Amino acid sequence: MNDDLWHDVERTRQALIAAGAGAPRVALVLGSGLGAYADTFTSGGSLAYDRIVGLPKPSVAGHGGRFVFGEKAGIRVIAMQGRVHLYEGHSVEQVVHGVRAMGALGAEVLVVTNAAGGIAEHLTPGELMLIEDHLNLTGHNPLAGPVATAERPRFVSMEQAYDRQLLEFARRGAAGPLHAGVYAGLLGPSYETPAEVRMLGRLGADAVGMSTVLEVIAARQLGLRCIGVSCITNRAAGLAGAVLDHDDVQAVAAAAGARLGALLDGVLGALASELEARP
Ligand code: HPA
What we know:
The structure is a single chain. This protein is 33% helix and 24% strand. The protein has seven helices and nine strands. The protein has helices at 2-19, 92-104, 164-173, 194-203, 213-221, 246-255, 257-277; strands spanning 26-30, 42-48, 66-72, 75-81, 109-118, 128-137, 179-186, 207-209, 225-235. Helix 1 (2-19) packs across helix 2, helix 2 (92-104) packs across helix 5 and helix 3 (164-173) crosses helix 7. The longest helix is centred in the C-terminal third of the chain and has 21 residues, at 257-277. It is globular and about 50 Å long. The chain starts with a helix and ends with a helix.
């Protein structure tokens, strides 16, 4: 079963090469309402997930469902425009398939973005939060399975899962001060109860969502340096008067898209200079 899984990842790598995605330095996963960034890539192309074995088409509004590749800020990039979630009923292997394929293609850096609910007081709708660390509360781990090899170790360190230098690039490129904090990744798809949000706050979470953590674990296994940005779309349950709604989440994420794009441009620009020094 594990052999099949890596065989499928290799097939996806080959399909991406055949589509023209060759040799990206940076991989991105663009979350709910945040996919527009990939439309700004130049001299590239795309490949729809439904052309790929092992990767289901996202069933969530606001998630496109294709790889987009090309150049951005002077660097070769590939992005997943829309991601696959556990809560759609997919396996953990399917959830991280795209990240593994982009890693197999040669990406050295993974940029993950998501929509999240703000728990810390200062994280209000429209704010961006750099992910400094995470709580994996999904009950799953993509590294669980029968086979561990030298290239795919089982016991992967998650200290500094979010790369300090990339965080610094993001801070330096930002127009003003940027929040940073801990992202709690839950299974979903129901939003949290107010009691769960109070619990998460006591556990050290600043923001909460239903993605990202499994992708980062899979990327760390392959040695990719990771950076994560949460777009805060709402105050988490019980912290504001309003009832949570997926349409609102998408609308706020899309409105924050320009700021997120500027932040990502800054990170890619700094990375381009760094990578130029060691091609
Ligand atoms: N909880 C979980 N996931 C989310 C939220 C939230 O409040 N907002 C956007 N994604």
